[in-house]
Design goal:
The chain is an all-alpha fold. It is globular, with a radius of gyration of 17 Å. It has helices spanning 2-8, 13-30, 45-50, 59-67, 71-100, 110-130. It has six helices and no strands.
Length: 131
Amino acid sequence: MARLRSALGAPAAAPLGVLAAGAAAALYLYGTDPHEPGHVLPGCPFRIATGLLCPACGGTRMAYDLMHGQYVMAWHDNGALLLAAPFLLALLGCWTYEGLRGRRWAPPIGGRGAAAILIGAVAWAALRNTL
């Protein structure tokens, strides 16, 4: 039991878990068109509650379109998230790399960076809902 607790507390456990969950989700999504009804994909809780698009709305459709080479459709689904995806993947890569080296890692964003991300997300959501 102590060995399991030690392995789950290892710095690589969380990023590897995120990668495994992402891979499983991608496998399911590849064969499930989120543009069509009748699938087992969760809806956006923000959109369900308010009727408005959140900054990430369209992300599932965007990922599906990217996996199928539909780049224009992916841009149409969520352009801001499409532009942010390489940076998010780089952060995941750094987190995984450092975890595998036995070190804990957090992105060096800081207060101003977090504020910029929040302002950008709110501005994107406002823009999407006014167009």
